[in-house]
Every structure is written in C-alpha cells, then in structure tokens.
C-alpha cells in the first residue's frame, strides 16, 4: 500500500482549509500578522507537528517549568508571568506539590482571555514539608524550594574481633556412627 495518496490528500486539504491550525494549543500567545496574512513555507499538517510554533520566543520565555532534585533540596521554577501573586496557589496534597493559577476573563491587546493551569510534582520522600517556601520574582518566575531532611546516619560502626579456634566448625563423624544413629531413629 502506498502512502502517496494520503500525502497528496493532506497537501490538498491544507490548501482548501487555511484555518486548520486555528485551534493549535498556543492560546497564550498573540497572533502575528504572518499568521493571518501569509501562509508559512512549510504548512502541511504532516509536518506541522515538527515545526516549533514559538519561533519568535526565547526558549527561557516558553513557560516551561524546571525541576531540580538536588542532594539537599527539591526546587521548581515555573513561569507564571501572566498571573498576579493572588491568582497563584501553592499547596501540598498527598506527597505532591500542586501549583495552580487562574484568572478570570479580562481584556488584553488581542481581545478577551482567561487562563488556568495546574501543575503537580511528586515530592521526594525525605522532603521537610513544614519548610517549603515559594517566591515570585519581579520577572514572573515562581521559585518553590523544598529542603530535604538530613539523612539519619544512626548506624554506628562496631568492630567485631575475629577469634581463631583450633576446632572445626563442622564435625565429621564415622559412617558406622551414622548407620547406628539412623537405625535408632527408625525404631
């Protein structure tokens, strides 16, 4: 079976359906003039999944969280620049760090928008839950730090002396003794 009819169909379908990418998941970004007026050079739906839609953003501004599980702490950095501090909630639920953000519909330069997100991070078992702290920087990065409890090193090292004895640990007995003891056990 050839893939050629499928590929041709995908190319033709994209030609007649210029708004097929309208519902891509890039809702947080504003539209560029290029998005509405000019078709991109590679616009086939087959290749659309391999094109980075955030071509105009710096990778550090992509809103992706970074997680670091270090020896002394567990740390999460999350871009929440679209939210006010009172719209972000950080809590621990069943050994998970849960970060939620929500703001109601409001107007921006492209129309009306509302945003909501929830992120869950599994906490390591040795995190001190009472000492978790969160800070929001001026550039909108939420930093959550969870210090780890010091490892209990209660294991004491005790040196045990090795004493050599002059007697064997396994005693060898005569076969005649084994037969006589075996006969006695059967009766």
Q: What does this protein look like?
A:
It is a single chain. By secondary structure, the protein is α+β, with helices and mostly antiparallel strands. It has a domain at 59-151: Sandwich (Immunoglobulin-like). The protein is 18% helix and 28% strand. The protein has 4 helices and 7 strands; from the N terminus they run H-H-H-E-E-E-E-E-E-E-H. The chain has helices spanning 4-16, 33-37, 45-48, 175-186; strands at 66-69, 73-79, 88-93, 96-108, 111-122, 133-136, 141-147. The protein has a 4-stranded antiparallel beta sheet with strand order 1-2-7-6, with no helix packed on it. Strands 3-4-5 form a 3-stranded antiparallel beta sheet, with no helix packed on it. The N and C termini lie far apart (82 Å). 4% of the residues are buried. Mean pLDDT is 74; it is low at 20-25. It comes from Phenacoccus solenopsis. Pfam families: HSP20.
């Amino acid at each position: 079976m050839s893939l050629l009819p499928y590929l041709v169909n995908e190319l033709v379908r994209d030609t007649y359906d210029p708004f097929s990418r309208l519902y891509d998941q890039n809702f947080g970004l504003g539209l560029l003039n290029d998005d509405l007026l000019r078709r991109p050079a590679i616009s086939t739906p087959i290749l659309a999944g391999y094109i980075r839609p955030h071509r105009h953003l710096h990778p550090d501004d992509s809103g992706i969280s970074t997680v670091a599980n270090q020896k002394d702490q567990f740390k999460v950095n999350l871009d929440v620049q679209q939210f006010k501090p009172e719209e972000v909630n950080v809590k621990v639920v069943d050994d998970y760090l849960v970060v939620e953000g929500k703001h109601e519909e409001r107007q921006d330069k492209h129309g009306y928008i509302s945003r909501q997100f929830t992120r869950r991070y599994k906490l390591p078992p040795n995190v001190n839950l009472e000492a978790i702290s969160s800070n929001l920087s001026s550039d909108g990065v939420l930093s959550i730090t969870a210090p780890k409890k010091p490892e209990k090193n209660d294991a004491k090292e005790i040196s045990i002396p090795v004493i050599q004895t002059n007697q064997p640990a396994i005693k060898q007995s005569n076969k005649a003794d084994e037969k006589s003891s075996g006969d006695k056990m059967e009766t």
